[in-house]
Amino acid sequence: MSAALQSAAEAVESHVRAYFEGHSVEAVEGVLGPEHRDMVPGLRVLVVGPGPRAGGWAYVTAGCWSAAEEDGQGLEFIMTAGVRDRRFIDLMGMIARYHCGGHRLDVEHSLPIGEPWTPGSTCDQLLVSLPYAHGPELEYCPLPAGHARVLWILPVTSAEIEFRRRHGHEALERLFHEAGIVPTDPYRASVV
Predict the structure, then answer these.
(1) Which residue among 13, 69, 87, 192 is least enclosed by CB atoms within 10 Å?
(2) Quick check: 80 and 132 in contact, CB under 8 A?
(3) Domain for residue 122, yes or no?
């Protein structure tokens, strides 16, 4: 990995550690198999434990920006969950591979997981959204050669994605707000 890519990934990690001060943060490397490592060189997933900012776990990519930035701007992703589980680390690796493999995710995009988010969950899709639970303080990450936006990956149901296609992203987010969903609850009811 080049020094510039390494520097950017380290800046993302430093940003996440500063935002989640008081939380344990572990950098997990080797998230992608050998056949995909060149796609997102040096990708790591930062596993953030419960603490003063949030009672659940957070999983944050560090390395997507380096692999897919344009004009110094790129994305990283955060997902929250109620537990620590290798499944979520692997899922973040899948998201990084998808994004950096030419699909370029952004706010309002979605992608199917191909199975339930966790066993028994009706959430089998992922929605890219603003990190409402964390705000712009986490969302905007300055880097030596630009900046990264940290976007939220929210597990959703197929019915919710279909509703969004018909009524728009804002209408779906309004339903989430009205229902008071708990985004870390894999067994939450669909809002539609």
Answers:
(1) 87
(2) no
(3) no
Place of tokens 């008081």: 22
| Domain span holding position 41 | 3-114+127-155
Domain tally, the chain: 1
Q: Is residue 191 part of a domain?
A: no
- Residue 128 CB neighbours (<10 A): 20
Rounded mean pLDDT of 15-20? 98
Alpha-carbon distance of 163 to 171, in angstroms, equals 8
What would you report as the CA-atom Rg of the chain, rounded to the nearest whole angstrom? Answer: 16
DSSP 3-state percent helix, strand, coil across the chain (nearest 5): 35, 25, 40
Asked whether the whole model's pTM tops 0.90, one would answer yes
* CB half-sphere exposure, 71, CA atoms < 13 A: 0
HSE (side-chain half, CA atoms, 13 Å) at 3 = 0
pLDDT at site 41: 85
Residues 131, 53: Cα–Cα separation, whole Å: 13
Give the number of residues written for the chain.
Answer: 192
65 falls in which pLDDT band (50, 70, 90)? confident
160 in a structural domain: no
Q: Is residue 1 scored above 70 in pLDDT? A: no
146-157 and 73-81: which strand pairing?
A: parallel
CA 98 to chain centre: 12
